[in-house]
Write a structure and sequence with these properties.
The protein is α/β, with parallel strands linked by helices and 256 residues long. Strands 3-2-1-4-5-8-6-7 form an 8-stranded mixed sheet. The protein starts with a helix and ends with a strand. The N terminus is likely disordered. It binds S-adenosylmethionine (SAM). S-adenosylmethionine binds next to loops. S-adenosylmethionine (SAM) binds next to loops.
Length: 256
């Protein structure tokens, strides 16, 4: 993946867009849009604007389904979630954590919850809890009480939140903000699967797993190199990795 991709993932998901041209709206279009408004809400619209632009399905949905096939988690923790309620379409019990003050209203919005209910892929009621706190602080959840932790483009999440994962539980972690390479250094976790974005599936064979977090001279990435990844753009780093992808799955194991 190019560094440009990494950097674009770091940009705020609420970056204002350039103004759009005002278009004359026909009577039919007006009626159609008023029908949409009845089943929508400002919060649901904000979710769609960020995650399902122009009707495109959120690309995370396939990743979440892939994780679900492997982990089948009872409880999921999602720190740095923003309005990413897509997770509740696949996982029936999700605790969302975000300290941005405008996010809470999404997770208690009736229309958002109705939309989740109508589009979820499981029979049980969706259990959704939102905690408006810093994920680096004590936000009131028990350690080792989650089957799955998700760290997606929200900085380094795993350092403060991996303690919430049960033994043999999993972490879905993206490397957009270099949290995957950070977790790779943690001896309590082992890389078990890598996401193939073309085939839309997780791989766990030795070939697919090899070369990640490994420099061109065959050495495992170091703590200094992870810090360098955070501090410098790819072109200015003193090392290159054999393989870089976006999504990884790690399992909490006894110390390696
Ligand atoms: C770029 S968004 C990513 C959202 C989502 N995970 C995704 O992949 O689309 C990062 C989110 O993490 C939240 N965040 C960053 N640092 C945080 C912290 N220390 N505690 C709680 N939330 C945090 C921000 O408020 C923001 O909503």
């Amino acid at each position: 993946m190019s560094d440009r991709t990494l950097r674009s993932k770091r940009q705020s998901v609420e970056t204002p867009k350039s103004p759009t041209k005002v278009k004359k709206v026909s009577k039919d279009e007006k009626e159609a849009s008023s029908k949409v408004k009845k089943v929508s809400s400002a919060e649901l619209n904000l979710y769609f604007k960020t995650y399902q632009k122009k009707g495109a399905v959120d690309f995370h949905l396939d990743v979440f389904k892939g994780v679900n096939n492997i982990v089948k988690p009872s409880r999921v923790l999602y720190p740095g979630c923003h309005r990413h309620v897509t997770a509740s379409l696949v996982f029936n019990d999700v605790v969302y954590v975000d300290n941005y003050s405008k996010i809470k209203s999404c997770f208690i919005d009736e229309k958002v919850l109705d939309w989740v209910s109508s589009n979820k892929e499981y029979k049980e009621k969706a259990e959704i809890k939102f905690i408006g706190k810093n994920f680096e602080s004590d936000f009131g959840e028990k350690v080792e009480s989650f089957d799955l932790l998700m760290s997606l483009s929200a900085g380094i999440v795993t350092t403060s939140c991996s303690k919430y994962v049960k033994k043999l539980g999993y972490v879905l972690v993206s490397d957009a903000h270099f949290d995957a390479r950070m977790l790779y250094l943690d001896l309590d976790f082992e890389l078990t699967h890598v996401w193939d974005s073309e085939r839309k599936k997780f791989d766990d064979d030795a070939d697919a797993l090899s070369g990640h977090f490994t420099t061109m001279d065959g050495k495992a990435i170091t703590k200094d190199q992870v810090q360098e990844s955070i501090d410098k753009p790819k072109a200015k780093r003193s090392f290159k990795l054999q393989k870089e992808i976006l999504f990884y799955l790690f399992q909490k194991v006894e110390q390696r």
